[in-house]
Design brief:
Layout: E1 4-8, H1 15-23, E2 40-47, E3 50-57, H2 68-82, E4 85-91, H3 98-110, E5 114-119, H4 126-133, E6 142-143, H5 152-160
Parallel strand pairs: 1-3, 1-4, 4-5, 5-6
Antiparallel strand pairs: 2-3
The protein binds guanosine-5'-diphosphate (GDP) and magnesium ion.
Length: 163
């Protein structure tokens, strides 16, 4: 059975962008049929020589539960339960917001190995956001740009250290 990596975090931090990069193509998050939404996507992925299955958690756009928070929480917990390792992503451009703490708390409670990723570091001023990420208590943040591909060697090394 392949090693499974779940990408977790609040909406809009860039989870799907990283997912698409890892699987090597764009995969739509929402089914074509109206009302049918696939909450989680598991797909074979590769990061240099490292192969694993990656799980994306859908966001805001797919909400069909009473509240977004409930929806996200459930998706996140199922994804983490299924995973051998969690990539917890924050948006270094935006800096930490209360929702990051909420999701970080879910991750911490599950007790799975975590790689903390600070995304969007291609944006000027993101260094402060990377530094803030330390305060989550999830270890050293790996600075990446999912959009441009920066930091993928460091991300590979961080995953390989656990896998
Ligand atoms: P998700 O909700 O966590 O899955 O986030 P998405 O992958 O849908 O990305 C949310 C927004 O952030 C989109 O507008 C992306 O283009 C943007 N984004 C994602 N990764 C990066 C990045 O590395 N740098 C910058 N500047 N923008 C990014
Ligand atoms: Mg997404």
């Amino acid at each position: 059975m392949a090693f499974k990596v779940a990408i977790v975090g609040r909406p809009n931090v860039g989870k799907s962008t990283l997912f698409n990069r890892l699987v090597g193509r764009r995969i739509a998050l929402v089914d074509d049929t109206p009302g049918v939404t696939r909450d989680r996507r598991v797909h074979p992925a590769r990061l240099q020589n490292l192969r694993f299955d990656v799980i994306d958690t859908a966001g805001l756009e797919d909400a069909a539960a009473p509240t977004l928070e409930a929806r996200m929480r459930t998706q996140t917990e199922i994804a983490i339960d299924e995973a051998d390792l969690v990539i917890f992503m924050i948006d270094a451009k935006a800096g930490l917001v209360p929702d990051d703490q909420t999701f970080a708390e879910i991750v911490r409670r599950k007790g799975k190995p975590v790689v903390l990723v600070a995304n969007k570091t291609d944006v000027r001023g993101a260094e402060a956001g990377v530094f803030d990420a330390w305060s989550l208590g999830l270890g050293e943040p790996v600075a990446v740009s999912s959009e441009h591909g920066n930091g993928m060697v460091e991300l590979r090394d961080a995953i390989a250290a656990v896998a």
